[in-house]
UniProtKB/TrEMBL annotation:
Organism: Cinnamomum micranthum f. kanehirae
Pfam hit, one: ADK
Protein role: Catalyzes the reversible transfer of the terminal phosphate group between ATP and AMP. Plays an important role in cellular energy homeostasis and in adenine nucleotide metabolism.
Protein's UniProt keywords contain Transcription: no
Family: Belongs to the adenylate kinase family.
Keywords per UniProt: Kinase, Nucleotide-binding, Transferase
Catalytic reaction list: AMP + ATP = 2 ADP
Adenylate kinase active site lid domain sequence ranges: 157-192
One GO MF term: ATP binding
Name of the protein in question: adenylate kinase
EC number: 2.7.4.3
Length: 244
């Protein structure tokens, strides 16, 4: 938001929209959420809806790390040193960057964490940091979906590279298999949309993340979503979970 000195330069429409948003947000309960789910489970579809509905900030740890490095914050400089050496950025550093991020005004009503924590140690460090602020994770939304359904979802995706148009061999097929409807050019599959790549990603996901789900289940904050349903059904399920 601009400083008050040049508020008169902001179009009134934008000011009104922001004012109305803030009034709506003031009545919303605070929420600190973690989204967990394998690639293709629909987290990317649901998180903007949840963010807008509850006035939360969306914290994707990869993006935050890149932003901290670009802004040359003290933690960003440390993270860059680790990355330049080809090392993993330490859990403490990532939690530190989350700690910094949630002080922003946009995170006042809470946050959605996506892609973190991936291990129990990370979950413990996150909880310690939140406890120091007198808060905790309210809900962990587990986008549960059968691996076979994911495989069908992901390996059926085809892309027209120059326009970005996407097709799905089962759910949204092109008129002619392997050919873009508009230009007649061939469609491609992304390298990471193949069954072999997906299987290895899913194995890693289950190995790392299931212990995290168990950890939060013991705290009674995990909500299982049926992520194999159509997006609007999942949205309704999320809203039901978050209003309880």
């Amino acid at each position: 938001m601009a400083s008050s000195a040049n508020l008169e330069d902001i179009p009134s429409m934008d000011l009104m929209t922001e004012l109305l948003r803030r009034m709506k947000c003031a009545t919303k309960p605070d929420k600190r959420l973690i989204l967990v789910g394998p690639p293709g489970s629909g987290k990317g579809t649901q998180s903007p809806i949840i963010k807008d509905e509850y006035c939360l900030c969306h914290l994707a740890t990869g993006d935050m790390l890149r932003a901290a490095v670009a802004a040359k914050t003290p933690l960003g400089i440390k993270a860059k040193e680790a990355m330049d050496k080809g090392e993993l950025v330490s859990d403490d550093l990532v939690v530190g960057i989350i700690d910094e991020a949630i002080k922003k005004p946009s995170c006042q009503k809470g946050f959605i964490l996506d892609g973190f924590p991936r291990t129990v140690v990370q979950a413990e460090k996150l909880d310690e940091m939140l406890a120091k602020k007198g808060t905790k994770v309210d809900k962990v939304l587990n986008f549960a979906i059968d691996d076979a359904i994911l495989e069908e979802r992901i390996t059926g995706r085809w892309i027209h590279p120059s326009s970005g148009r996407t097709y799905h061999s089962k759910f949204a097929p092109p008129k002619v298999p392997g050919i873009d409807d508009v230009t007649g050019e061939p469609l491609i599959q992304r390298k990471d949309d193949t069954a072999a790549v997906l299987r290895s990603r899913l194995e890693a996901f289950h190995r790392q993340t299931e212990p995290v789900i168990d950890y939060y289940s013991k705290k009674g904050v995990v909500a299982q979503l049926h992520a194999d349903q159509p997006p609007n059904v999942v949205t309704a399920e999320v809203q039901k979970v978050l209003s309880s």
